[in-house]
User: Fold this.
Amino acid sequence: MHRNLIFGRFIRTATVNPSKNGYYYWSLVITTAYLYNMMLVIARFTFDDLQDSYRDIWLVLDYISDAVYILDTIVEARKGWHLSA
Assistant:
């Protein structure tokens, strides 16, 4: 119970600093998911053989991409800015 209280407090107070390296790496992950959706999803709709031959792989990649977008929503909601006067 005590551990859940500490973890809950951490989640409520955690912020993401957009000027740190971790945020830039996260942007690379988001860019990769975006490019996947822009190029390969269109290619799958265009070429039926590509879609039918590797259906399981495409489903896994689609679910990973969706999970990345959901995580990005959480990260962006926790992004903090430091305003200097």
Notes: Residues 21-46 form the longest helix (26 residues). Helices lie at 2-13, 21-46, 48-53, 55-77.
